[in-house]
Amino acid sequence: MITKAIKNAFKFAKDRSWEKTYWAFDIHGTMIEPNYKPGEIPKLFYPLAKEALQRISKRDDIVLILFTCSHPDELIEYDMFFREHDIRFNYLNKNPEVQSGAYGCYDAKFYFNVLFEDKAGFDPLEDWEKVHELLNEYEKNN
């Protein structure tokens, strides 16, 4: 469940004195409702997704990574679309801040603490509300 991953990320960050955590976000079926129309990127946010992403974007302790199989030209269009909505992704399909080391090899799979991915069980119709609630809790405690 996404709330457990978020809680763990914040706990590890606190326990290990990390300045930030890395959150990866899929687009379709996670943030945006798919339209299945070639050549026309969908732009309809799931309820509460936009607001949660805007809040997450404002935090200095979270690095946002767009994690998608979208084509390169679509990535550019999506990056502009999200920026127009005050959602700032630090990286697109990569995390150059964490390099391979003793605890992991990040040559083929980049490092992240939290993954928002419908194919991994994220339910956009239920989980965005839970993310909001958890952000409220962590904003009050920090």
Structural overview:
- With about 140 residues, the protein is α/β, with parallel strands linked by helices.
- The protein has a single domain, classed as Rossmann fold.
- Helix content is about 40%, strand content about 10%.
- Strands 3-2-1-4 form a four-stranded parallel beta sheet.
- Helix 3 (about 70-85) links the parallel strand 2 (about 60-65) and strand 3.
- Helix 1 (about 1-15) runs parallel beside helix 4 (about 125-140).
- The chain is globular.
What labels would you give this structure?
single chain; 142 residues; alpha/beta; Rossmann fold; four-stranded parallel beta sheet; 4 helices
List the helices and strands and how they pair.
Elements: H1 2-15, E1 21-25, H2 49-57, E2 62-66, H3 72-84, E3 91-92, E4 114-116, H4 124-141
Parallel strand pairs: 1-2, 1-4, 2-3
Can you describe this structure in just a few lines?
The chain has 142 residues and is of the alpha/beta class. It contains 4 helices and 4 strands. Helix 1 packs parallel to helix 4 and helix 2 runs parallel beside helix 4.
Query: What is the strand tally?
Result: 4
* Tally of individual helices: 4
- The parts where pLDDT drops under 50 for at least 5 residues are none
Percent of sequence in beta strands: 5-15%
Summed over residues and divided by their number, the pLDDT gives a mean of 93
The SS-based structural class is alpha/beta
Estimated helix fraction? 25-40%
Radius of gyration: 15 Å
